[in-house]
Write a structure and sequence with these properties.
homodimer, 221 residues, mainly alpha, two-stranded antiparallel sheet, 4 helices, 22% helix, DNA-binding
DNA sequence: ACGATATGAATGAATG
DNA sequence: CATTCATTCATATCGT
């Protein structure tokens, strides 16, 4: 990730030079921006902000660097999508017993993450962004972005529980059972079966596949 | 390449001393794992395995060493991306046949002249990739740019011809214009207020949240 | 140790 | 919301 930079101006990305590449074609969130976004995501449970919220968030985050509504929009989309995606990868880490306190908390890996929480935000109007006008379109009947008109919260002194315990760089994959060594199955060829790829592929008259590069065979010998 | 990996002890990273954080920075595939992955990639034509396949593949490859679903996911992502990346650099070494063949014709790159053929996946989207200018083209009305026909394709990438067929749902624009309306504040803690997120959220009985990671905290301050 | 390269990992952006 | 692409960062390994 772009952890190396945190103070990019974002305003100097116009390469006046010849045909080089755009300095930064895409938004590079600052540390503060990410922090706030995560706060909103985890602490406030915002997962699919409305256009109205997106505007406010973007406006707020603009204090910390250049940012547009679409950046906020994409950020939440991606963040949510990836939380879900990595869950799809894990092959059912633990069967959900009705009353089992089995510590499933074993995989702090970015993909085996499991920090579920409540959905403070109930609705999600399936919106998408239009890069043509940089507008957000939705299939919902949300109110127009009257930034400043809707401020009906006025609740919570917000001392905020977070701030101290909040985001902390978790160590990545620390424990993964390497399992046994060698399956000695011998039949490394029936891939299409266990991966559920195909069945008709067996029809191919190619009992021997040729790997383009045997660079991985370096220590196989 | 890390072609000389030995046995994947994972503990030899001169890091398993006292700190447990990010012991093994990243997955180091074993020879067998790479072999199988390539088998799946080239021989079975798997380029973008589904979450379901990823699980099976990872489970299978786990016999040969530590591996997670995300490793499989990234491997295919990177392998495909880099194959394509290399192809983008080819200075049009392929003489253009007069026949308007399918644009899916991949040009044999001098870098890796492997022979991948059938795509069992058959998840062909409605677009194809043009290595001439590394753009994505849709198969809607366009004709294949006849790689090498001249040096001009005259077609526009998919990111330019929308506006008509792109999103024609019952959406409405929500004005996400970057023209911000900053709330004029400074406290980055009263999120739920300026975003109009929630009010009752304070009622939640979970004052503590676990943020998975804070990768951006590098220079936030 | 340093530079070059290969590649795992992460993420913004885009499309379906 | 799922999937994919492109770009970039981070790091392992190797050559010098």
């Amino acid at each position: 990730m772009e952890t190396t930079q945190q103070d990019q101006d974002l305003g100097n990305n116009r390469n006046s030079s010849y045909l080089c590449r755009q300095s930064s074609s895409r938004w590079t969130p600052t540390s503060d921006q990410i922090r706030i976004l995560k706060e909103l995501y985890y602490n406030n449970g915002i997962r699919s902000p409305t256009a109205d919220q997106i505007q406010r968030i973007a406006a707020r985050l603009r204090h910390y660097g250049k940012i547009e509504g679409k950046n906020v929009f994409y950020w939440f989309q991606n963040h949510k999508a990836r939380e879900r995606q990595k869950k799809r990868f894990i092959p059912t880490p633990a069967p959900p017993p009705p009353s089992t306190t089995t510590a499933t908390t074993l995989l702090p890996s970015p993909f085996s993450d499991h920090h579920h929480h409540m959905h403070i935000q109930s609705h999600h109007p399936t919106h998408f962004y239009n890069q043509q006008n940089h507008k957000l379109y939705t299939t919902h009947h949300i109110s127009p972005p009257e930034a400043g008109s809707s401020s009906s919260q006025g609740f919570m002194p917000v001392g905020c529980s977070y701030g101290s315990v909040a985001m902390e760089k978790s160590f990545r994959e620390c424990s993964i059972s390497p399992g046994e060594s060698r399956v000695a199955g011998g039949t490394d060829h029936d891939f299409r079966s266990w991966v559920g790829v195909d069945s008709y592929s067996l029809d191919k008259t190619k009992p021997e596949y040729e790997i383009p590069e045997e660079d991985d065979d370096g220590g196989g010998g």
